[in-house]
Amino acid sequence: MNHRFTRRALGAILGAACTVLAAPAWAQAPSDKPLRIIVAGPGGGSLDVVSRLLADGMHKELNQTVVVDLKPGAGGALAANDLMQAPHDGNTMMVTLDAIVSEIPHIVKLRFDMAKEIRPIAELARGGLVMVGNPSVPAKSLSELIGFVKANPGKVSYASYSAGTVSHIMGLQLNKAAGIDMTHVGYKGSPPALVDVVGGHVPLMFAGIPNALPLIKSDKVVPYAVSLPKRSPQLPNVPTFAELGYPQLEALAWAGLWVTPDVPAAAQARLREVALKVMAQPATRQRLAEFGLDAGQPRTVEEMSKGLRSDFERNGEILRSINFKPE
């Protein structure tokens, strides 16, 4: 991850003699059919953590069985395909990153238009990236690092968790903004990339904060800056890129709850309401913070979709500038 709520709805039914408040959607009688959350990531990862927090909370709120089904691979395309094949009745949903619409279509040739086939109905959690380096790199700050790269043109490389993702794009943006020429090395996921950074095979990386946090705390990598709009509570001594004069490197990745657009509107509203309620609970927010994530924002479906379109266009423009081709 290799890249930032509460809605209460009370309907009033006006009668001749009194006003009756309708129960919120999440409090309505539950279905006997289990809910299924398809997770576009491996066990133990940030999406798995978010999904299990959601599943536990939904079970308590709805008194309904909730099954978490891990479907990693192809940047979320496998999970999305599974979602599309399942009944579109509101009992099956997916948890994945915004990248599935804003980045993945630029990276992998898909047989369908992801933006039209799936829809985000709730933002669950958000986080940023942190630029880290092997301790052997002779730079303890971003300014020192930029000076080091300039003194060694074409000789300093950086890893990303996958070519074409924000982890790759942020390096391109820093190259342009700082007038440097770091060389990109793409990996198949954060774990192998971070292993090579720790091992000194690749000196630098733009990594998701949850993945890099344990390595930072154990002094196995040095953090230079975070892509968040403000400093991370987990890394209070690490400045943001904007603080250091690079506002264009502000980037947030968010995990959302997704369904197919043809799921009945009432079911979408029910899932959204209970998801936002669960993720806004203090215990859930605390667990997310321990993992290096923030609770999501209660943005509307229209706001999320507009942001995805904007991010898709921006990422495409950057990747086209280097003649990037999808796999």
List keywords for this structure.
alpha/beta; D-Maltodextrin-Binding Protein, domain 2; six-stranded mixed β-sheet; five-stranded mixed β-sheet; 12 helices; 13 strands; 38% helix; 19% strand; globular; disordered N terminus
DSSP helix count?
12
Main β sheet profile: 6 strands, mixed
- The CA-CA distance between the termini, in Å, is 20 Å
The backbone outline, from C-alpha atoms, is globular
Q: Can you identify the CATH superfamily of the largest domain? A: Bordetella uptake gene, domain 1
Summarize model confidence as the mean pLDDT. Answer: 89
Structural class from helices and strands? Answer: alpha/beta
Word description of this protein:
The chain is α/β, with parallel strands linked by helices and about 325 residues long. The chain folds into two domains: about 35-125 and about 250-320, Bordetella uptake gene, domain 1 (D-Maltodextrin-Binding Protein, domain 2, 3-Layer(aba) Sandwich); about 130-250, D-Maltodextrin-Binding Protein, domain 2. It contains twelve helices and 13 strands. The chain has a six-stranded mixed sheet, sandwiched between helices. A five-stranded mixed sheet has the order 9-8-10-7-11, sandwiched between helices. A hairpin with a 4-residue loop joins β1 (about 10-15) and β2 (about 20). The longest helix has 21 residues, at about 300-320. It is globular and about 65 Å long. About 45% of the residues are buried.
Secondary-structure blueprint:
Blueprint (H helix, E strand, L loop, with lengths): L11 E3 L4 E3 L13 E5 L6 H17 L3 E5 L6 H9 L6 E6 L1 H4 L1 H4 L6 H4 L1 E9 L1 E5 L8 H10 L5 E4 L5 H13 L4 E4 L3 H9 L5 E5 H9 L4 E5 L26 E7 L5 H15 L2 H9 L3 E2 L5 H21 L6
Parallel strand pairs: 3-4, 3-5, 8-9, 8-10
Antiparallel strand pairs: 1-2, 5-12, 6-12, 6-13, 7-10, 7-11
Helix pairs in contact: 1-10
